[in-house]
What we know:
Blueprint lengths: L23 H12 L12 H7 L9
Amino acid sequence: MKCPSCSRPIEWNDGFPFRPFCSERCRMVDLGAWLTESHVIPGESIDDLDLREATPAAGERPS
Length: 63
């Protein structure tokens, strides 16, 4: 298997702490890409109003 960040070959087993990445650095690089929105899930964006309407207020139960 290859690391999704740097493509370095890695051994896939339960004893490998960073899988699917080859190192802590590659794992953090990937996290940073998600946080800066370099990686995104394709689709229409949800504006704040839509998000507020879809989220129940505190103390309310979803229907």
